[in-house]
Amino acid sequence: MTGTAELIIDNKRLALPIVVGSEGEVGIDIATLRDKTGCITLDPGYGNTGACKSAITFIDGEKGILQYRGYDIAELAAKSTFVETSYLLIYGELPTAAQLAEFSALLTDNQMLHEGMRFHFEGFPPSAHPMAILSAMINAASSYYPNMVSGKNRQERFPHHAARLVSQVRTIAAFSYRKAHGLPVIYPKSKFKYTENFLHLMFSMPNEDLELNPEIVRALDLIFLLHADHEQNCSTATVRMVASSRANLFASAAAGVCALWGPLHGGANQAVLEMLEEIHREGDDGSKFLTEVKNKTGNRRLMGFGHRVYKNFDPRAVIIKEQCDKVLAQLHKSDPLLDIAKRLEEIALHDDYFISRKLYPNVDFYSGIIMRAIGIPMDMFTVMFAIGRMPGWIANFKEVMEDPDSRIARPRQIYTGPTPRSYVALDGRA
Ligand code: CMC
Predict the structure, then answer these.
(1) pTM of the model
(2) Domain range 71-263+379-402, CATH architecture
(3) Which of 111, 266, 360, 429 ranks highest by number of CB atoms within 10 Å?
(4) How far apart are CA 228 and CA 181, in angstroms?
């Protein structure tokens, strides 16, 4: 499609340019709409609004396609690693061997937190949610790198700051787990690769390194990779919005963590497990729960189902379900919650309520079961998502910073409040 779209308002005609993406996605450019007509568009939840042009990730929700920089997610899941995919997302191309070695070395060089950060951890109560700790500590970490906060040389320092963030988010996450569980802090070791080091930070003891199971390392690496980017979702859009004000990388990422925390977004993986546990506790086989969902009793939702963009299937869910079976088989574990999840999926996929609304399992439906099998506590699930999503946020931050046309994000609104009225003194109010 080429050319222009025509909008008629009050018999006035306005030609609006049509913009076509590299995969044929069509948008109508309304940048001049308000200047020329005084009108704005209204699109709550931005379901029809493109806020930017981006060359990072492509999703075709109808066909269940997800590509990072043109590479299909299934191919990356089978052949790549989280670190390599992080490089791809941030810098646009798969790295050469030398580039990958340099990136890995930067991750290792930047894995330690400033020792002063330990005192910040002490300030949190043991009951603090790890997502609260994560966002606060990412923001706090920027205080130790003044050359990131000041605008000068920010561009040149970007590779260091990006590597620091990818590497340190993992260290902060594990510290927050150990703090919450009253465990002694463990430091990263250079002999371990990225995901191995995370497991070491979580589960090693001061004098005894964790024995690493390659299947578990692979499963966790895959979870990180599958979460690494997902186009303009709530948290990525938040990162871009904060970045548009020229806030620094760590401040933008900390805001992304807060947006991710909610149960309709990254918090869904924790919500899925809580839901499965509740069904199990009540001795339900899932049917009573699904009836409540369909009747919208207490606004219940089948967590881990549905997606704003995927209306056929979530390709990440297919990969993760397979990995879930593998991990449980390898660990010789059976999990009643997995049985409930499979039953819920089976019923829902044949039920008109879910079919008519195009609700299918999303990435969060099975990822929690893998993480539970690995021994990751439930309140850390969303933190795992945040570790995985970090390269995507960084890539989007970089894109905003490098875009010569980038403007501060500032949506409009349709005001529905009172029209002008006069102040009434306290004794005259009803
Ligand atoms: N269970 C039951 N009903 C649902 C669900 C669900 N999980 N999701 C949507 N619906 C219904 C909803 O009640 C509405 O029904 P009706 O037409 O009768 O009013 C209809 O489907 C459309 O729902 P919506 O809320 O307008 O859809 P949305 O595109 O705004 O929401 C969603 C997308 C992901 C927030 C939603 O599907 C949901 O809440 N899912 C459960 C939470 C979840 O698993 N989130 C993780 C998403 S994947 C990870 C990520 O990328 O963040």
Answers:
(1) 0.91
(2) Orthogonal Bundle (1.10)
(3) 266
(4) 27
Contact 66 CB / ligand 1 (< 6 Å): no
Class of domain 268-373: mainly alpha
Tokens of 298: 């207490």
Calpha distance 221→391 (Å, rounded): 13
Residue 157 to residue 149: CA distance in whole angstroms: 11
> How far is the centre of ligand 1, averaged over its atoms, from the C-alpha of 30 (Å)?
28
Instruction: State residue 260 phi and psi, 5-degree precision.
Output: -70, -25
Q: What is the mean pLDDT of residues 156-171?
A: 92
For 246: left if phi > 0, alpha if psi spans -120 to 50, otherwise beta; the answer is: left
Range with the lowest mean pLDDT among 142-151, 229-238, 326-335, 357-366?
142-151
In short, whether 266's Cβ falls inside 6 Å of ligand 1 is: yes
98, pLDDT greater than 90: yes
* Whether residue 364 lies in the annotated active site: yes
For the domain bounded by 4-50, which CATH number is listed? 2.20.28
Per-residue tokens: 37: 């007509």
| C-alpha distances in Å from residue 218, one per residue of 199, 309, 324, 379 | 11, 28, 12, 22
Maximum distance among all alpha carbons in the chain?
A: 79
